Amino acid sequence: MTDDLEKLFEQARACRLCAGVLPHGCRPVLRGSPSARLLIVGQAPGARVHASGIPWNDPSGDRLRQWLAMDRDAFYDESRIAIVPMGLCYPGTAPKGGDYPPRPECAPLWHPPLRAALTGVRLTLLVGSYAQAHYLGNRRRRTMTDTVAAWRDYLPEFLPLPHPSWRNTAWLKKNPWFDAELVPALRRRVDEALDG
Ligand code: SF4
User: Fold this and answer.
1) Cβ(161)–Cβ(148) under 8 Å?
2) Which residue is closest in CA terms to ligand 1's atom 6?
3) CATH number for the domain that contains residue 185
4) 20 to 30 A from 32, CA-CA: which of 2, 41, 88, 152?
5) pLDDT given for residue 2 in this prediction
6) Does residue 28 line the site of ligand 1, with CB under 6 A?
7) Cis peptide before 91 (omega within 30 of 0)
8) How many domains does the chain fold into?
9) Spatial contact of 112 and 85, defined as CB atoms under 8 Å apart
10) Pocket lining: 1 vs ligand 1, CB cutoff 6 Å
């Protein structure tokens, strides 16, 4: 790992900026290396990820790996795949269910330097609306669905995806083009990024 990235990972993992507001304390969860060719930007760790310190170590991760047709060994090979969510720490769960949004101070602080130090990245998966807002800005469409449906417009740098949470199962049923068109293209593009 280069000094730059190693230092940044150390600094990010030691970050306590939101210590006063995070209900379960600070535990930044991120991984990667300068040789990583694929970057996955999700929302924020959930309770299980916070407990284990392993990103996407939950049912959402299982669905994401199924979309990618990738087993856990391949998914967690950080020499090939970097994982940096929009909020590095678990934001807690709202009383009515569903996690709170990623801490708003996190992505502006950590994403620009981390992205710059991840010099090998060829393709970035923008998983969910927070990642799409940060990386696509005003190139986003009116809704998350419209943005994901326009996925061809953001290649070759970005590929927007819905969040693979069980909460989006109805969305997946309502948008069959996702499984029919986007998932095969996702697998192809990821293979090209990793092995091309
Ligand atoms: S959420 Fe981000 S900014 Fe806040 S403490 Fe965790 S790493 Fe730091």
Assistant:
1) yes
2) 89
3) 3.40.470.10
4) 152
5) 63
6) yes
7) no
8) 1
9) no
10) no
pLDDT of 1 reads 59
Ramachandran region, residue 73 (left: φ > 0; alpha: ψ -120 to 50; beta: rest): alpha
Residue 89, ligand 1, Cβ within 6 A: yes
Q: What's the pLDDT band for 97 if we cut at 50, 70, 90?
A: confident
Whole-model pTM: value is 0.96
Range of the domain at 189: 3-195
Report the nearest atom of ligand 1 relative to the CA of 105.
3
Does 179 have pLDDT greater than 80?
yes
In b/e form, how buried is each residue of 133-170, taking b as 16+ CB within 10 angstroms?
bbbbeeebeeebeebbbebeebeeebbbbbbbbeebee
Residues 33, 14, 160, 66, CA torsion sign = positive
pLDDT band at 73 (very low <50, low <70, confident <90, very high): very high
| Bigger pLDDT: 133 vs 98 | 133
What pLDDT, on the 0 to 100 scale, is given for residue 157?
Answer: 98
* pLDDT value for 196: 73
